[in-house]
Each structure stands twice: as C-alpha cells, then as structure tokens.
Amino acid sequence: MSSVSKSVADLKADLATLRTYVKTIHGDSHGVHTCAKAQVQYVDGFRPASGHSWREYKDQVEVVAAWVEKYVDDSGWVDALERRSKKWRTAVGHASDATEYVESKKLPAVDSWKGPAGRAYREVVPKMQAGASTAQIGATLLKTASRSISDAGETFFSDVASAVSTLATSLTHYEQAGPLPDPDGPPRTGLPGAFSCGLTHETDDAGTHPWTAMTACETALTALEDDVERALQVPLPVGPEHGGESIPSYLTDSWPKAPGQA
Predict the structure, then answer these.
(1) Mean pLDDT, rounded, for 110-116
(2) Which of 17, 79, 192, 257 is most open to solvent, judged by the fewest CB atoms within 10 Å of its CB?
(3) Cβ pair 174, 158 in contact under 8 A
(4) What is this structure's pTM?
C-alpha cells in the first residue's frame, strides 16, 4: 500500500489545529493579545514579517483549511490505482506470453494445415501477431500510467501535508488570552480575544505563513495535474519534434479486424 494514508492522517490532525485557531481568535483589529510562549502582551497591528493584521492572517488560515477539506477525504484513488497497476502487470505477462507464442511461429497449424484452409489460416497469422502485440503494448501503457498517477497522488498528498504541517506548527503556541466574550453580556475591558498570529518571535518565518502554505498547496495541485496528463500521453515522433496522443486515441486504430470481420 502507498503512504497516502499517513499523509491524510497527518492532514486531518493539522486541519483540526487550523480550525481551532480560526474558531478561537477574535477581537478588534487592534486588540491586546498575549503570546503564551513568550509570556508577553502586545497591541496587535500589522506584523513586520507578513505585512498583514491578525484578522487577515486568520482569514487566510481559514482559506487554507477550506482548500484542504476539498481533498482530504478524496485520496482513495491513489491506492486504487496502485492495485490497478498490479493487475495490469499481470495482464502484461499474459499478453507477452501470447505475443511470444504467435511471433515465434509456435502455431502448429502454420505448417501442418494444407490446402485452402492452410492458406486462409496463414493469412490470418499476421493479424494475430499484431493483435497480441497491441494487447501487450496497451497493457504496458495502462500499467505504467496507473503506477505513475498513483505515485503522483502520493507526492501530492505528501506535499500538501508538509505545507499544512508547517503552518499548523506555527500556530500551536498561541492560546486563548481569556474566556470568549458573551455576545449577550455587557461590554468588558481587558484582553479582548485569543492570541494573534503575529509571529514576532523566533517563529517569525515566511515558511509559517498561510499565504506560503496556500501557494505550496496550489503548486502541488498543478504538479499533480501535469503528472496525470503526462502519464496518459504516448510520445510519438512527429516530424522534427516529438508530439504525443492519449492512450485511448493511440490504441483506437491499432486493433486488427478479426478473421471474417468486414
């Protein structure tokens, strides 16, 4: 089995961290916040590293979380394609045996059959050989494509998990500065909300920002799409350059007509 299950498990755990952060941070755009790690209070505003206020930061964390939720429960295809590749590998073996049989003239009727029947049979042999060869080529292409797409899926979920983990780790030392205000209660003074994500301490690193995480996730998706398209292409020499066509279109006209077929 692939490693995608671990990536998805890690993603779900980190997604919970992101969702908790989005849920608990609140207050005015310039409220007082406390960092549990540094044990200091500061007036939140625009952070020198990201150039964004805590509210913008929180909103972007929510964007990342929403994006991840679209994919975190849609990973079954990775292992399914890995299993499919193994089945196509078996098919390749059978097709290879058939190809070797018909192409090495192990067909006893080629020499033993005489008269019109023998001639008709020998005329069909090239078609049998072409059919067996096409079956082997097709099975090989589908085996390779299934494996390549499965591998691309593993890489996609691994890259997304890594990006989200970096972001989630940067949020874990922020805690709620005080009890959530009662929306129906009287106004209160003092600490107005949860810890902001200013990252003004040693974690003040661009790699921990939700904008960086979002870019990494989108880059991973683009790479996946490119890998899938490439896996389903059969490169063919066309003029001075090499073009390609999809596996289905490549095999469309490759199958010979069966004996007696118009």
Answers:
(1) 78
(2) 257
(3) no
(4) 0.74
Question: How many angstroms separate the CA atoms of 133 and 254, rounded?
Answer: 10
Contacts of 133 (CB under 8 A, 6+ apart): 99, 103
b/e string for 234-247 if b means 16 or more Cβ within 10 A? beeeeeeeeebeeb
The rounded distance, in Å, linking the Cα atoms of 204 and 11 is 23
Q: Nearest Cα to 220, choosing from 142, 130, 153?
A: 153
Question: For residue 32, what is the enclosing H or E element?
Answer: strand 32-35
| Closest among 160, 135, 166, 162 to 78, alpha carbons compared | 160
Q: What average pLDDT does the structure give for the chain?
A: 75
Token pair for 123: 């005329």
Inform me whether the pLDDT recorded for 19 exceeds 80: yes
Determine the pLDDT at residue 179: 53
Q: What is the share, in percent, of the chain residues with pLDDT greater than 90?
A: 35
